[in-house]
Amino acid sequence: LGELRAFFRVSGATGYNTNADTTCNERKRIMAIQAPEGTFDLLPGEAAFWDHFRATAFDTFARYGYHPIETPLFEQTDLFVRGIGEATDVVSKEMFTAISGGNMQKLLAGEKLKSKSRLSLRPEGTAGVVRAVVQHNLVPQGGAPAKLMYAGPMFRAERPQKGRLRQFRQVGIECLGAEEPTVDAEAIIMLMRFFVRIGIPAGDMRLLLNSMGCEKCRPAYREMVREFIRAHESEMCEECNRRADINPLRAFDCKNSECAAVMANAPKIIDHLCDDCREHYEAVKRYLDAAGIAYEEDSKLVRGLDYYTRTVFEVQVDNGMGSQNAIGGGGRYDKLAEEVGGRATPGLGFALGYERCVLALEAAGADTLVARGLDLFVVCVDDSARDRAFALVQACRDAGVQCDMDHQGRSVKSQFKLADKLGANFVMTLGPDELAAGEATLRNMLTHEERAVALDTVAAALSA
Ligand code: HAM
What we know:
Blueprint: H1 2-7, H2 24-31, H3 44-62, E1 67-68, E2 74-76, H4 77-84, H5 89-92, E3 97-98, H6 101-108, E4 119-121, H7 126-135, E5 146-155, E6 167-176, H8 181-198, E7 205-211, H9 218-231, H10 238-246, H11 257-263, H12 275-290, E8 296-297, E9 309-317, E10 326-332, H13 336-339, E11 347-353, H14 354-363, E12 374-380, H15 386-398, E13 403-405, H16 412-421, E14 424-430, H17 432-437, E15 439-444, E16 450-454, H18 458-463
Parallel strand pairs: 1-5, 7-8, 12-13, 12-14
Antiparallel strand pairs: 2-4, 3-4, 5-6, 6-11, 7-9, 9-10, 10-11, 14-15, 15-16
Helix pairs in contact: 3-8, 8-12, 9-10
Bound molecules: histidyl-adenosine monophosphate.
Histidyl-adenosine monophosphate binds near residues 164, 305, 331, 352 and 353.
């Protein structure tokens, strides 16, 4: 609280001194503000590629019956605590808390916030989507499964490094209401099809598969892992020893090489599945085999979120990635709807990380920029042509043609340079002669072909 008070030392929630006589140095400080650590801007060519990436994903997933959903960027903190799990790194260390101005004042005054006022930026999409499904009863009893897809920013206060950001973009799907293994296999096939369609070479990807069991078989297994960790207490890090009490399976995720070496010999969940889970797992594998999807079974794959039951999977790429090599992952979560207060509703989903996919695409030599393009640039020879050019570009735009003109009084030569820079396919030059004749020359910038076009038919000529 003391730190908060110091940070927000001035009244108001912004923390800025709103005093009118801002000094020159303070102004300079404001000018130099950069994007926060672990975030970055998507500049025009990059933002256009994100649009293309998301549209391609949605087009792929729509073929499998998925429909878009949008949920808020922040939710009640309790949703993530209950859904993702209090002992996970994501919830215990990496959440960004969102505090409104009024609530900040209450906190500073030492008041406790009601749970509905305790808000966090979403670290992932699943909890919010499941909350929305429950809140709006999107899977009525006996109804068809809800197949939902989403794309957008997620927030995790992790230490930034290559492929690990504080704000990153995910594209994901959630299917609620069906527990059949066909749902699991279909989602995995769809994910792999998308990765290949967007340009990640199939040979660069490794699909890891495991089963986490269910509430019948996992408790006994968890106990076994707890005892295993206790028996190797002295060889493992402090955090893993602490994990043994709260959630021993998290020890499989430990990055410490000594812990990893010990955990390589830990009991394997796959040897301790109940009959139903084993049957489910075998069926998922059968469907994947039939579809020709290659996978590696990895009994250490436990994923970093606590809601998983049965199938879990992750796609990794080594080429160009560094240590953050998972480009996507997901699994089944048959208990999550109940955790957030809904009726028992089985579910399965995955999310893929856009920025990591871009790294994988770049490593494979694929293009991740969409070049700027323009159908037409109108060059004005002098000011007498400006009014007619202004009306002409407007008519062209209304007809669906992407076009532009100079807005800075540039010379003819630099208008041509600008047209080139903007990637214009055609350039039309307008001057007193063209205005008098009522027609002008349309020049194809690629082939250098020229043809005369009546000024009032330019839009039709280009949109044809
Ligand atoms: P996740 O494995 O935590 O799963 O995240 C999915 C993907 O998001 C990762 O494979 C990675 O590509 C990307 N990602 C995660 N954290 C970062 C980060 N800090 N910086 C950049 N990229 C990152 C989930 O989020 C689950 N909600 C997936 C799911 C959906 N399970 C069931 N339904």
